[in-house]
Amino acid sequence: EPEVTQTPSHQVTQMGQEVILRCVPISNHLYFYWYRQILGQKVEFLVSFYNNEISEKSEIFDDQFSVERPDGSNFTLKIRSTKLEDSAMYFCATAGTSGRNHEQYFGPGTRLTVT
Amino acid sequence: AQSVAQPEDQVNVAEGNPLTVKCTYSVSGNPYLFWYVQYPNRGLQFLLKYITGDNLVKGSYGFEAEFNKSQTSFHLKKPSALVSDSALYFCAVRAFTGGGNKLTFGTGTQLKVEL
Q1: B49, B103, B107 member nearest A45 (Cβ)
Q2: Which positions 53-82 of B are in contact with A (Cβ < 8 Å)?
Q3: How confident is the model at residue A66, as a pLDDT?
Q4: Is B65 helix (H, G, I), strand (E, B) or coil?
Q5: CA-nearest residue of chain B to A95?
Q6: Best residue in A94, A104, A105, A111 for a mutation probing chain B (most B CBs within 10 Å)
Q7: Which of A14-18, A24-28, B64-68 has the weakest average pLDDT?
Q8: Strands (E), chain A
Q9: Percent of residues, chain A, with pLDDT higher than 70
C-alpha cells in the first residue's frame, strides 16, 4: 500500500537555526498539507498546497514558514529561524485528485526539538 | 469556524465488548467527517469517512461510525473490541462549503482495551 514518507524522523536544532522537513507524497496525489502536534495537544493545520501554490494557511503559518515542491516529488516545510515553541511533531499529508472528497493520508511525522 | 469536540480523554473497555468513542462537531454547511487512529510513534491512519448518503459508515478493522445531523455527532463504534485496538483516536471535520480542505481535529481519545 502506498505511503507518505517523511525525513528526518527526529530533528534537533538550536533556536534561531533554519530547518527543512521533507515529505514524499503518495504518487499521483495532488493536494499537500502540513499539520503539527505540540506534545499533548491536538493536531493543528498549518498550510495546504495545490498546483504549486499555497491554497490556505493558518495563523500559525507566519513569515518564518515556507513550503515548496522543489523537484516535483518532495514537498518541504522550511522554518527560517526556529523558536522554542516550534518544538512539535510535524505531519505531512496528501490527498488524491479531488481534495474535497478524498481522505488525507498522513506520514509518520518528524519530531522537531528546538533547544 | 469549524470545531470538533471529543469529550472523553480516555475510554476503557474489556476485550470482546462493544466500544464507542464520542465526537461532536460544529461547522457551517454540510460536514465531511473523518476518524483517524494513531499508534505510538506512528502517523495518523485513516479509518473511515462520512461525505454523504447512509448515516452509518463502515471502515477499516471492523470500525463503523454513525452520523447524526440533529445531534451533530459522529461517534465511532466497534461491536467487539480487540486489545490491538488500543490507540489514540482522532475525529476530524472539514466544511463542505468554504474552509478549504483543511481538517480540524478533536483533542483525541485514548482507547484502552484490556483482557
Answers
A1: B103
A2: none
A3: 97
A4: strand
A5: B101
A6: A104
A7: A24-28
A8: 5-7, 10-13, 19-24, 31-37, 43-50, 53-57, 65-68, 75-79, 88-95, 105-106, 110-114
A9: 96
